[in-house]
Amino acid sequence: MKAAVWRTASEPVQVIDVDLASPKTDEVEVTIAAAGVCHSDLHLIRGDWDVPTPVILGHEGSGIVTKVGKGVTGLAEGDHVVLSWVPSCGECRYCLLGRTSQCRKAATVTAPNGVLFDGTSRFSIGGETAYHYCAVSSFAERVVVPASGAIKVRKDAPLDVLALVGCAVSTGVGAVQNTARVEAGATVAVIGCGGVGLCVVQGARLAGASRIIAVDMVASKLDLARKLGATDVVDASKVPVLDALAELIPEGLDYVFDAIGKIGTTEQAIAAIGLGGAAVIVGLPPTGQKASFEPLSLAEGDRRILGSNYGSVAAAVDFPRLVDLFMDGSLDLESLVSARRPLAEAREALEDLASGQVLRQLLVSGIA
């Protein structure tokens, strides 16, 4: 089969022939319908995060189950699924508490080592081991994933756009609903209006926030933020962000979401919250970077800093619910899609994403 492979920063991403082994116990094979192109893939090829290589890229995807390994229940060939980049082991303390986005085995085995739960890979290139990215690797024609990472969804939903539920939608909407638990009437700012940030905007709208301020440097993204629920916009290319937010909400905001993950935007989010407010860090910075804040201001103002990994979702519950919200018109996913491209254009899609001018691009197959 074909897959997009990355080896080193000195080599471009290449779509080449890759071998895929059959699923083992508690695993399924999925034929990919669509894969979303996300900034986390850019972090990888820029060397911001350390992963074993060669690696099959992609962590946001949807598809159809084509093989089922031993011991799998609840999934069958032909099922439509959205892939989760934090599969649940079902055994660790966090999974047993229902906090599956914090699965210890996913954090210590699959993600850092490029393998599945048994510590091995199903990919190879001419006999050389190739590695999984976050137990998904959706930039491929077919994948093998843990069964807990393939979430069954309704078949009447368009399978290509559902790929976005696997990362952007669950991360953004989940950060509002699960991590921050934004209340009706709250004031919210979102720094960064890419795919995840625009999903934060939609999550704030669904929560009934009274003011939703979108911050970005690209006018077209701010226009779309208004369409998706923002009440105000701030063009960060023209005005100082903190001054603009203070002018709109002088007392400080109840919630500020950093959907970019740069040190500067994280510090802006912390500085912009009001009494009792929370800065929610959604975007992921390179490993080892540190932000500064004044602890006294946090303590005296009862302010909080919240980290949000994967929107604190329980994928098995939240993915089908988010698909239902899309199908009843409460969530707009189609507006997040800048382009649909074939897998062969994976490298070009990543280059376009790096330009900052596009939202989500989908690498689609013939089954989408």
> What's the number of helices?
11
CATH superfamily grouping of the largest domain: Medium-chain alcohol dehydrogenases, catalytic domain
Q: Note the gap between the termini.
A: 17 Å
Uncertain ranges: none
Overall geometric form: globular
What is the averaged pLDDT score?
95
CATH architecture of the largest domain: Alpha-Beta Complex
The largest sheet is: 7 strands, mixed
Q: Please name the CATH topology of the largest domain.
A: Quinone Oxidoreductase, Chain A, domain 1
Helicity level, as a percent range?
Answer: 25-40%
Number of domains: 2
Task: Look at the structure and give the CATH class of the largest domain.
Answer: Alpha Beta
In brief, what are we looking at here?
Helix 5 packs parallel to helix 6. The chain contains 11 helices and 19 strands.
Structure write-up:
The chain has 368 residues and is of the alpha/beta class. It folds into two domains: 2-152 and 333-364, Alpha-Beta Complex (Quinone Oxidoreductase, Chain A, domain 1), CATH 3.90.180; 172-309, 3-Layer(aba) Sandwich (Rossmann fold), CATH 3.40.50.720. It contains eleven helices and 19 strands. The chain has helices at residues 39-45, 93-96, 104-113, 168-180, 195-207, 219-228, 241-248, 263-272, 295-300, 315-327, 346-354, and strands spanning 2-6, 14-17, 19-20, 27-37, 55-56, 61-68, 80-83, 123-125, 128-130, 142-146, 150-152, 187-191, 211-216, 232-235, 253-258, 273-281, 304-307, 337-342, 360-364. Strands 4, 6, 7, 10, 11, 18 and 19 form a seven-stranded mixed β-sheet that branches. A six-stranded parallel β-sheet has the order 14-13-12-15-16-17, with helices on both faces. The longest helix is centred in the middle third of the chain and has 13 residues, at 168-180. The chain is globular. The model has no long low-confidence stretch (mean pLDDT 95).
